[in-house]
Design brief:
heterodimer, A: mainly alpha, elongated, B: alpha/beta, 7-stranded mixed beta sheet, 6-stranded antiparallel beta sheet, receptor (chain B)
C-alpha cells in the first residue's frame, strides 16, 4: 500500500508542478491551498466550484452581450470581464486572468472581433482548467483513499 | 819649678813607698812647707823633725830593748834612708830658697856626701840648725801652732761631714725624681765625694802620731779618691755637654708645649663657638613661631656669650622708627622707639658684620645707668627681615628692598671682657639664622592663612550647593504634585464634558459645553507645556526615537492646521524636497509638536497672505547661523523646515526675546490670541535636543516673518514598499481571534476567498455584496471593513464617507481598508482622501493580510490623524 501511496503522491506532485509550469495556476492558488485547514477541509474545492459556476455565468452573459445585433454594450461586457478577471485572480487561474486582461482591453477599445475571439479563448481555457483541476482532485481522492496524505507541493 | 818638685816628690814617693808614716809625715811636712815656704817653715820642720827623730829614737830603743836585731836593722835602715831623704830634701829646699846661705849649703853638701855617717841627734840638730838658718831668710815662726791645728782639725771634720752629706742628698733627691738619665754618673760622683770625705776624715787621725794601719788606710783612701776623682773628671768631659743639651732640649720642648697649648686653646674656642652656633640654630629652627624664635635667640645668645643684656629692635610699620621689641633681662620692655636714621644705626645696617658700637648710643641705653662706671662693650648686628616678595628665582633679594631689625648685645659691665673675633662671628651667624627662621615663620603664616581662607570658601560653596539642590528638589516636588494633582481634575473635566457633548443638548447648552471643553483642553495643554518645559530644563527629557514617515507627518500637520487656515482664508502650501527621505528615525511626536507650533504661530499671527511650509535636506553650504555647523554624516541628515508667512512680522530687536519663556510681543493683533508664550521656548528646547537650531527672520513689523529650523534625523534603512503604507519587518503571529470583520465584495469568488483568508486568521467574518447592504450591516462591533473598490463605474469610495458619517465618534468607527486591483498613486491618494485607513492589493496573500491586520490594529493611532 505504501508503494502505491508513494507512487500516487509522486504522480500528484508531478501533475501539480506541471500545472504551474504550464501556466494554468499561479501563486494565488498556493495561497488558496494555505487557507484549507481542518476547519474548512473543502475550502479549495468550494471556491473552485464557485469559480467555475461564476465562469459559466459570466461567459454566458458576455456571449449574450456580444451576440446582440446592433450596438454592443461594451460596458456591460467590460463589467463581466472585470468580474471574471477578479474571480480568476482570486483563485489563481493564471491563463484565464491573462485572457481577461486582454479581453478587457478589447472591450475598452470596442473591438468586437477581438472580444469575440477572447471570449472563445476564455471559454476554452476555463474548461481546460476545469478538467485539469478535476484530475488533480481525483488524484487527491485516490491518495486519501489509499491512506496517504496529500503532499504539499512547493513551487519555486 | 813646681812640676819638677812634684816629679821629684813622686820619685821620692816611689822610692820610699814602704816607709813608715814618719816619712810620709815628712813628706807632708815638706809639701806643706813648700806651700807655706815663707811662713812657718822652720818651725814646722823643726818641730816635726824633732818629733820624728824622737820617735825614731824611741822605736830604735824599743827594738834594742826587745833584742829584736832584725827590727833594729830594719829600723836603722829606715832611719838611714830617712836621713838620706831628708838630706836630699834639705838640699832641694836650699836650692829652692831665694838666697841660700852658705852655711846651709855647706851642710847640705856635706850631708849629701856622707849621709850614712850622720848620727841621729847630731844630724837632727844640725838639720834643724840648718833649717833654722835656712829659714831665717823666710819669715819667722808661728807661735800658736796648736790653735791652727785645732782649726784645721775642725775644718777637716766639717769638710768630711759635708762630703758625706752631699751624696746622701743626691741619692735622696735622685730617688725622689723619677727620671735622671745619668745615674751611674751620680754614683761615681757620690763615690768620689765619699772618698774625699773619707780622706778628710782619716786625716783627722794623722794629726797625732799614728800607727801604720791608719797610714795604710789613709793611703788607700787617697788612692781610691784619686782614682775616682780622675775617672769622674774624665767622665764629666763627656757628660756635661750632654747634660747641657738635655737642658736645651727641655727648654725647646717646653716652648713647643706652650705653643701647642695655645693652639689647643684656639681650637677649643672655635669648637665651642661652633657648638654654640649649632645649638642656637637648632633652638631657633625648632619652632616656627616668630616670637619664640626671637626670644630663644636672645636667651641662647645671652647664655652662650654670658651677656648682660641682649635686645632686639624691630622696625615699625611706617619704617621710620625702630621699636624695642624683645629684651633678655627685662620682662616688660617699655614702648621705646628710636628713629631709624641715626648714624650709628645706618652704620650697622650698612654692613653684614657685627659692629662694635658705643655703650652710650641710644640703642644701647636700655636701662637707666645705675652708677656703673665702666659699661661693657656693646656690639650690634643687623637681622634682615625677608618677605615672600623678596625671593626672586635667580638671586638673593636686593639690598634696597630689605628691612632690618637691630640686635644689640652688651657684655657685662665692670668686667674686662672684650669682644673676641670668634664671638663676633658667632653673632653674625646667629643673625643670619634668625633671618632665615623668621622668613620660614612668615611663609608658614601665609600658607596657614591661605588654607583657612580656602576652607571658608569651601564651606560657603558647600552650603550654596546644598541650598541649590534643596531648591531644585522642592521645585521638582512641586511640579510632580502639580502634575498629578492638577491633571486629575483636568481629566475629569475634559472627559465629562466630552460625555456631556454626546448627549442631547440644546444649541446654547452645546455651545457652552464646547466652550468648556475648549478651555479645559487649552488648560491641559498649558499644563503639559509647563511640565514639558520644566522637564526640558532639568535635562530629564529624553527623545523617543522611532521610525516614521516624514512626508506623512507633514501632511498630518497640515491637515490639523487646515481647518483654522481655511477659516482665516490663509492658504497653506507644502513643499517637500524631492530628495527628502521618506522614512526617517527621530522623535515623531516632538517633531510634530515643533512644526505644529511654528505653523500655528504663522497662522495665528497672519491676517492675510499665504503661508508656505518648505522642507528640504540641508547641506553645509546653505545659509546657517554663524555658530552652527551642519555636517552630513553617513546615516544622518539635517532636515530644514522653513515656514514663511506674510503676517504681522516681528521687530528685529524683539527677535532674541522670542524664545524666552512667557515673553510675548505685546501688539494689539496678538493680544486677542491665546497661548502662554511657552510654545517657542519649548520648540527651541526640542530643537536643541535634536541637535539642531531654530531662528526667526523678519524684515520688520508688517512685513511677515520666516521661521526656520534645522534638526538632525536619522535615515531609516527600511526600503519603501509601494502601495502599502506600512510593512513591518517581522510579522508577528497576532491572534485575531474573534475580531469582527466585514467584507464587502460584489465578486462572489473574491468575497469567498477574502472571507476564507480572514477566517483562517481567526476573524469572525460577515460578508456583504453591495454598498447598501454594507451600510445596513455595518455596526460598531466591526473593527475592520474590507471593501472592494475596483468595480469600475461604481463609486465605492462614497461608502467610506458614509461610514465616516455614521460613526462620528472615532473610537467606534471601524477601520476601512480598500481592496483594489491596482495600486497606483492616484488610487492610493483617492483612498486616503476618502478617509480610508488602508489599501490592499488584490489578491491578498495570507501573510500580507496578517501583517496588514496587525498593523492596522497596532497603529490605529497613526491612522487616526488621517
Amino acid at each position: 500500500m505504501d508503494a502505491l501511496v508513494a507512487q500516487l503522491q509522486m504522480q500528484y506532485r508531478n501533475y501539480t508542478v506541471s500545472l504551474y509550469q504550464q501556466g494554468f495556476l499561479d501563486d494565488q492558488f498556493t495561497e488558496l491551498k494555505k487557507l484549507q485547514d481542518d476547519a474548512s477541509p473543502d475550502f479549495v474545492a468550494e471556491v473552485l466550484s464557485l469559480f467555475f459556476e461564476d465562469c459559466v455565468k459570466l461567459i454566458g452573459n458576455m456571449a449574450r452581450a456580444l451576440d446582440q445585433t446592433g450596438t454592443v454594450d461594451f460596458s456591460q461586457v467590460g463589467a463581466s470581464v472585470h468580474q471574471l478577471k477578479g474571480s480568476s485572480s482570486s483563485v489563481g487561474a493564471k491563463r484565464v486572468k491573462g485572457l481577461c486582461i486582454t479581453f478587457k482591453e478589447y472591450c475598452e477599445a470596442n473591438n468586437y472581433e477581438g472580444c469575440v475571439r477572447c471570449l472563445q479563448q476564455v471559454d476554452i481555457e476555463f474548461k481546460a482548467l476545469q478538467t485539469k483541476l478535476q484530475d488533480m482532485f481525483n488524484l487527491e481522492k485516490q491518495i486519501i483513499q489509499a491512506g496517504g496524505k496529500v503532499p504539499q507541493v512547493d513551487i519555486n | 819649678m813646681g812640676v819638677d818638685f812634684l816629679v821629684g816628690m813622686a820619685n821620692l814617693m816611689h822610692i820610699q813607698l814602704t816607709l813608715e808614716p814618719e816619712l810620709k809625715l815628712l813628706y807632708r811636712i815638706n809639701a806643706q812647707s813648700w806651700k807655706d815656704i815663707n811662713v812657718d817653715v822652720n818651725h814646722k820642720v823643726e818641730s816635726r823633725l824633732k818629733l820624728k827623730f824622737l820617735e825614731l829614737e824611741l822605736k830604735l830603743l824599743h827594738c834594742v830593748k826587745a833584742h829584736s836585731w832584725k827590727n833594729t836593722e830594719i829600723l836603722t835602715a829606715n832611719v838611714t834612708r830617712a836621713v838620706e831623704t831628708i838630706a836630699l830634701l834639705l838640699v832641694t829646699m836650699v836650692m829652692m830658697l831665694p838666697t841660700p846661705s852658705s852655711s846651709c849649703s855647706s851642710s847640705v853638701v856635706s850631708l849629701s856626701q856622707n849621709p850614712k855617717s850622720i848620727r841621729f841627734d847630731s844630724f837632727s840638730r844640725s838639720v834643724s840648725n840648718h833649717m833654722m838658718e835656712v829659714c831665717n831668710c823666710i819669715e819667722p815662726q808661728w807661735p800658736a801652732d796648736e790653735l791652727l791645728m785645732k782649726y784645721q782639725y775642725i775644718s777637716d771634720f766639717f769638710i768630711a761631714v759635708a762630703y758625706f752629706s752631699i751624696p746622701l742628698e743626691l741619692i735622696y733627691f735622685v730617688k725622689k725624681s723619677a727620671v735622671f738619665p745619668y745615674r751611674w754618673v751620680l754614683v761615681q760622683f757620690g763615690a768620689f765625694i765619699v772618698l774625699c770625705g773619707a780622706t778628710h776624715l782619716i786625716n783627722l787621725w794623722t794629726f797625732t802620731t799614728h800607727s801604720r794601719t791608719v797610714a795604710l788606710v789613709m793611703t788607700t783612701a787617697k788612692v781610691l779618691t784619686a782614682v775616682v776623682s780622675c775617672a769622674t773628671a774624665l767622665m764629666l768631659v763627656h757628660i756635661i755637654p750632654d747634660l747641657l743639651s738635655v737642658k736645651t732640649r727641655e727648654l725647646f720642648l717646653k716652648n713647643k708645649a706652650a705653643e701647642l697649648d695655645r693652639e689647643m686653646g684656639l681650637i677649643r674656642t672655635q669648637e665651642e663657638t661652633g657648638r654654640h652656633v649649632r645649638m642656637l640654630t637648632h633652638e631657633i629652627r625648632s619652632t616656627l613661631d616668630r616670637h619664640t624664635i626671637l626670644k630663644t635667640t636672645l636667651v641662647e645668645l645671652g647664655r652662650t656669650l654670658a651677656l648682660e643684656e641682649c635686645a632686639l629692635w624691630m622696625p615699625t610699620r611706617t619704617g621710620l622708627e625702630l621699636q624695642l621689641s624683645y629684651t633678655l633681662r627685662q620682662q616688660h620692655p617699655v614702648e621705646y622707639t628710636v628713629p631709624i636714621q641715626l648714624p650709628v644705626i645706618n652704620q650697622v645696617f650698612g654692613t653684614s658684620r657685627a659692629v662694635k658700637i658705643s655703650p652710650n648710643s641710644p640703642v644701647a641705653r636700655l636701662r637707666p645707668v645705675s652708677g656703673k662706671y665702666l659699661l661693657g662693650e656693646v656690639v650690634a648686628v643687623r637681622v634682615p627681615l625677608l618677605h615672600l616678595s623678596n625671593f626672586q628665582i635667580n638671586d638673593w633679594p636686593e639690598l634696597s628692598t630689605k628691612r632690618y631689625a637691630l640686635m644689640v648685645l652688651m657684655l657685662p659691665s665692670d668686667s674686662a671682657r672684650q669682644w673676641h673675633v670668634h664671638e663676633l662671628e658667632l653673632v653674625e651667624v646667629v643673625a643670619d639664622q634668625v633671618a632665615v627662621a623668621l622668613s620660614h615663620a612668615a611663609i608658614l603664616e601665609e600658607s596657614m592663612r591661605a588654607r583657612d581662607l580656602l576652607m571658608e570658601q569651601n564651606v560657603a560653596l558647600d552650603i550654596a550647593r546644598r541650598e541649590a539642590e534643596t531648591a531644585i528638589r522642592a521645585r521638582n516636588d512641586f511640579l510632580a504634585v502639580m502634575n498629578h494633582e492638577m491633571r486629575t481634575p483636568m481629566h475629569a473635566i475634559i472627559a465629562l464634558s466630552s460625555l456631556l457633548q454626546e448627549t442631547e443638548l440644546t444649541p446654547e447648552q452645546r455651545l457652552m459645553v464646547e466652550t468648556v471643553l475648549k478651555s479645559s483642553s487649552l488648560l491641559a495643554t498649558l499644563m503639559n507645556d509647563v511640565l514639558d518645559l520644566s522637564r526640558l530644563e532639568d535635562g530629564s527629557l529624553q527623545l523617543e526615537l522611532g521610525t516614521f514617515n516624514l512626508h506623512t507627518l507633514f501632511r498630518e500637520v497640515l491637515n490639523l492646521i487646515k481647518p483654522i487656515a481655511v477659516v482665516k482664508k490663509l492658504p497653506i502650501t507644502l513643499n517637500l524636497a524631492p530628495d527628502l527621505p521618506e522614512f526617517v528615525v527621530g522623535d515623531e511626536k516632538r517633531l510634530m509638536q515643533i512644526i505644529l507650533n511654528i505653523v500655528g504661530n504663522a497662522v495665528k499671527f497672519s491676517k492675510q497672505g499665504c503661508i508656505s511650509v518648505t522642507a528640504l535636506v540641508t547641506k553645509s553650504d546653505n545659509r546657517a547661523p554663524p555658530d552652527f555647523f551642519v555636517v552630513q554624516t553617513g546615516s544622518h541628515f539635517y532636515l530644514r523646515v522653513k515656514v514663511k508667512d506674510l503676517g504681522a512680522g516681528i521687530n528685529p530687536q524683539d527677535i532674541p526675546k522670542l524664545f524666552t519663556k512667557f515673553a510675548q510681543t505685546q501688539s494689539l493683533a496678538t493680544r486677542s490670541s491665546g497661548g502662554s508664550g511657552l510654545g517657542l521656548a519649548i520648540s527651541k528646547r526640542f530643537v536643541n535636543l535634536m541637535e539642531g537650531n531654530i531662528w526667526i527672520e523678519s524684515e520688520g513689523v508688517g512685513k511677515g516673518c520666516t521661521a526656520i529650523f534645522d534638526v538632525k534625523l536619522g535615515i531609516s534603512n527600511e526600503s519603501k514598499q509601494s502601495g502599502i503604507p506600512k510593512v513591518p519587518a517581522n510579522p508577528q503571529h497576532v491572534n485575531f481571534a474573534g475580531l469582527k470583520v466585514l467584507v464587502m465584495d460584489e465578486n462572489g469568488v473574491s468575497r469567498m476567498v477574502t472571507k476564507g483568508l480572514l477566517v483562517h486568521l481567526g476573524c469572525e467574518v460577515t460578508t456583504v455584496s453591495s454598498t447598501e447592504e454594507c451600510l445596513r450591516v455595518v455596526s460598531h462591533e466591526h473593527r475592520v471593513v474590507f471593501m472592494d473598490v475596483c468595480t469600475p463605474g461604481v463609486e465605492n469610495y462614497q461608502i467610506a464617507l458614509c461610514i465616516h458619517e455614521k460613526f462620528t465618534k472615532r473610537h467606534q468607527r471601524p477601520l476601512l481598508v480598500a481592496l483594489t486591483g491596482n495600486t497606483d498613486k492616484s488610487t492610493k491618494e483617492k483612498c486616503m482622501s476618502f478617509g480610508l485607513d488602508g489599501v490592499l492589493l488584490k489578491p491578498v496573500s495570507l501573510d500580507n493580510m496578517r501583517n496588514v491586520l496587525s498593523d492596522l490594529l497596532e497603529h490605529r493611532v497613526l491612522y487616526e490623524a488621517m
